[in-house]
Amino acid sequence: MVEAVQTSDGFIRTAGREFLVTFYTALRSLKLYPLENAQVQKSLDDLANTSDQILESEHEIELRVTGEFLFVNSTRLRLDLDNYASFSHVLGVLKAAGVGLVRAEVGADRREWTTALSLLLAAAGRGGHGESLLELQVKMRDAGVAHIVMEPGIDSEASEEEEQQKKEAAKRTYQRSVAVTKEVISSVRMGRSASVKKVKRAVQAIVDQVLADETSLVGLSTLRDYDDYTFTHSVNVCIFSITLGKKLGFAKLQLYDLGMAALFHDVGKARVPLEVLNKEGSLTDEDWRVMQAHPWLGVLTLFGLRGYGEVPYRSMIAAYEHHMKRDLTGYPKCLRPRTPSIFSRIIAVADGFDAATSRRVYNTNPLQPDSVLHEMLNNPRRGLDPVVVKAFINLLGVYPVGTMVILDTYELAIVVAANPDATEVHRPLVRVVSDQGGSITFPGFVANLAERDTAATPLRSIIKVTDPDKYGIRVSDYFV
Ligand SMILES: [Fe+2]
Ligand SMILES: [Fe+2]
Questions:
Q1: b/e for 430-457, b at 16 or more Cβ within 10 A?
Q2: SS3 for 63?
Q3: Ligand 1 mean position, distance from CA 323 (Å)
Q4: What is the 157 CA–ligand 1 centroid distance (Å)?
Q5: Neighbours of ion ligand 1 (CB under 5 A)
Q6: CA 346 to CA 258: how far, in whole Å?
């Protein structure tokens, strides 16, 4: 029980401690035993009682983490041997979930505390900080917890800096990969023998980056703010393929192999004359014949590259098969039934998406990413492996990063990340870049489309995807 002490500060010092101990005991027992267990029930009763008493006198409870300290309503709780275990445990759980602040107001009852603590434990188990916190907030709201909120700490500024560093590292990896690809392809085009050593290192850097942080590089690839389609296309297909391979459970060495195969899937185009490759307007039959030779020209080219190690059979097969389609109606034509290799199937999906969403000479009207994904899944003439396509959609979200959307609030927004909650694929995180009258704002603000009001109605929903060009917006300006 909390003893009422005369001064508010003194009251909080005692009651705050009591609150923390009951908070800790409830967390511990919820973690160890099922909800109906008597010990769990008692610990929740205690927590609700302490919370009620503080709310009655202070109207709110604010449990804040700053560095290694815990504050309740701005009063720092002193650490001593008795409460050391409970302090460090609560600190650990909050930090693991990315929570820096727990705030409760009048109305926070036993039911809300039970839900909030169970969700907090689950979030701490998932780890991952920022993402799990976002998910936690959404789940709490969905579960009707209206009087308790959990927010990131002040420490999150440091992690924002880390985020920024990660983004820059991703950009450097991307640009370096484009540069080395350009070098090799240009050498091939000029008939010089080219070494792939640098390319290998670039692909390894992509694999490492994708394994460490899947989203930054994929984000860069869907942004498509780059000229030089030939080279960025190869790098994009490489990044998408590696990320897909990771999703499908490939080991690191397989990912290197897959990445190399993806980067060189179109290497045969280096032997297609530029006037055909860059031709504006429609291609003649003869042009098509030359274009469609690029798979086997690729195999020949791969024979001539130095520094690959052993003969790159798998890259050759992927170069040869990536336009074949599952029913073999593509090219090159084959005489006998065969199943394209898993590398070829992955590369075909990555290739199809990148080609359809890129701007280039004979594709002046690129499709919006969401309709491309839809078509890839549902149009059998595409001849893609549906399992791989599903994994790909899973990866990009229904609305890939960089997609411009119109919201039901008449605001324009740009998708900045898939929703961390996998059940909310249609509700990504967006940056709202206009007011409701349609005037463009910069830099705008980030909104989670899964955010709902108390009646569980989403605050913002996507009505449709639109073309940023229509509004004179350069999507990449919002990503610096
Ligand atoms: Fe191709
Ligand atoms: Fe391609």
A1: bbbbbeeeeeeeeebeebbbbebeeeee
A2: strand
A3: 6
A4: 44
A5: 266
A6: 9
